[in-house]
Amino acid sequence: MKKLLSLPPNLVECFHDIEKADRTEWFCTSDPVGSKLGSGGGTAWLLEACRQGMAPDADFLSWLRTEKRILLHAGGQSRRLPGYAPSGKILTPIPVFRWARGQRLSQNLLSLQLPLYEQIMAKAPASLHTLIASGDVYIRAGQPLQPIPDADVVCYGLWVDPNLAKNHGVFVSSRNRPDKLDFMLQKPSVEELGKLMQTHLFLMDIGVWLLSDRAVDLLVKRSYKEGKLSYYDMYSEFGLALGEHPRIADEELNELSVAILPLPGGEFYHYGTSRELISSTLAVQNLVNDQREIIHRKVKPHPAMFVQNAEVGYKLTAENSEIWIENSQVGEGWNLHQQNIITGVPANDWQLDVPAGVCVDVVPFGETDYVARPYGFNDAFKGALAKEETLYQGIPFREWCAKRSLSIETIENNHDLQAARLFPVCASVEELGVVMRWMVSEPDLQEGKAIWQRSRKLSADEISAYSNLHRLADQREAFRIKNWPALAYNYERSVFYQLNLEDAAREFAQHDLSLPKPLSDSAPLMTRISDSMFRARVQQLKGLAYREHESETFRLMRDGLTASALAKRQQPHLSVYSDQIVWGRSPVRIDLAGGWTDTPPYCLSEGGNVVNIAIELNGQPPLQVYVKPCREYKIILRSIDLGAMETVTTYEEVRNFMQVGSPFSIPKAALVLAGFQPGFSTDSYASLKEQLKAFGSGMEITLLSAIPAGSGLGTSSILASTVLGAVSDFCGLNWDKNEICNRTLILEQLLTTGGGWQDQYGGVLRGVKLLQTHAGMDQNPLVRWLPDYLFTGGEYQKCHLLYYTGITRTAKGILAEIVRSMFLNSTEHLAILSDMKNHALDLYEAIQRGNFDEMGRLVGKSWKQNQALDPGTNPEAVETIIRQIDNYCLGYKLPGAGGGGYLYMIAKDPEAAIRIRTILTQNPPNSCARFVDMTLSDKGLQVSRS
Fold it and tell me: The whole model's pTM is what?
């Protein structure tokens, strides 16, 4: 999806280098110099510039239809946020949120705001190709996005108080048709809104608009006057011509269909001024106040205090409030107060007192010089210098001049503070410090005045136009590199282990940074787990041995998951007659949504949501286990489907379950958990034979898995549950289904195959259900049962198809790679997993409502999410099958980790189901491919005796 940015001219030239952005994905330009185009004209200019740059031979409308795009307007002067005017507000660095996991130390406003816009565009109808938004806001949706209607214009808004709405655009709708725009207002009065509320609803415009190609074409046409691109405002002109009762008469615009949507759980943070820089950041940091969910445990002297990409020797105290230090060194010789923003200051040994309400900004100029630009926290950078109301550093500019015995007339361009040549270019950091003292707090410092007088001076506009942004970015990166070891060393009071550790590992490896000393055993378990994988990844990136650290990661997690259960020793005793057989049988499961969110370590940090169904194949539970007494004091293991047999006579043979692929790893591990191993039993025995004598007999365990390996139906986990259930009954352990599933998770950890909890719960528990867990080592899902009508009722049952592809795969390799990314807090993976969690709730709602079409569509979305998490989920052999039946399905997916096994399809209707069967039966991909009859299991795991 292409991103089009309108940026300050100076940033356009170096954006791709500074942000390491792909030029084929990101297009940047700025408005024509000296012209004011407004948001509408600016949109027209940006689109046309992109077309000419990317597809000069295509006509405009044809080019619009080729792909979806996001437009961000971020080219303003930033008069009221001077510290980030040169690089544009859109690249403002934003501190890592104390409650968030997987953020990057290098994140900025652009990287934070973009994911929401991408989600909106991914959800938007095919007819909506263009999203337009502002670059100086951070907008969050606290809840999943609702469906987006197919209209010419779709606008997002927030429910707000009239006192806030009065400063913004407002979408007004009739209470009878709340999703349709009646008309739009710009900055209405509170009184006007109060009258409207009797018959109408209103949403505050947050500047996120989706436009059809037709709407874009009309917007562009309105931006031209007499054949020349001119000023046209998207909100006060284009917007006021929209709706059922538009405020501006324009026949073509009046005919556009318009839908308005409240952003679910919407939050709006503006970064347009120095004050908002701190207040918005503080508000985001305080979104979560539940101490159990706050990862960063440090208590700051004052909450409105933010330091990043910086070296600070000055001790901040509770007296310092509204402090922002970024890309700067602030040494012991500095003295800060309140409302101080410090940006761009290079390494120095200054003695500088910064009064309350005064900010210090330094901007690189040329290859070696710096520009000193102090300013006031609330300065508007507007107005003639001689006017009383024109403030600089919080006082009238003429007062500032008088204190320094300066004449306003000697300052060039004194008609406007933004244009005034006031800020000196200094050749050294020492000169910079002296002139800064004079400009900020020592008006009688003659040495500083002399430097100012002899120096070339630039205006705020010229600073933005000519600053060396490469040097500014390089300085920021240098400070950040220095910060890494300190953040790791002080992990207890820093955000280190909640960061994207893949990103951190690359920084440590690339710059050969020293790793912190190993954590003590008293450190929190999840922190130790993260630390081990971080060390492993650094070593791997350096080309050094890393497996030991990686193994330690999995061992720590395994110990954490198994500790409580393994502490409960078992006392197995023969609980059947000598001629009885215990018979366990289970269905398999298909995960419909949320798969992977049940997998440690993700679920341990975030909890998981999974919707799945238990199914029988060809009318039978496909997984079966038989346990019966054996006269000899030994354990006989058999596998009917594998044709294998093994006799176990020693504890060592039972303990030898670690070999993945062994036909009897699962029953051996189950026997260990059942107490047939020293350390797991309440009693001690000299040998396995002695324990079996005390038990009362030997035992025979026979397995039957009437399903191919690598099926994706949770076979191994559910088979383990079936074995545990049968052994529990045989040995009188009285494990209920929840305990059986919990011990299955432990069993898989003992086998080092990993995996989550949804497989076993999906098969052990009947029918259709939503399974949910909270963060923590105790992963016992809450079960919310769902109606099964969409799976069993009438014509619906015929639409559910299960096809064995004949393509095999092993989940362990896929699992290990994705789990590794979970350990490292991969930003991209965590975002996908979060979407998966929310998506499971969407599917839950669709099934509750009995919406068959929506359910099918959402299952198809689950498949896309799985592919986003791991592209190997959908190999070409599988895609070849899918292409044949795609048009006849509402949705489809490979259950489990994907890559092969079974293909689950939801046909559009019974006729489509017949067509799918015909196509795949006539064109099988291999000799093993076939349809299998599936029916919903209404029992789950069953254990009975002969």
Answer: 0.90
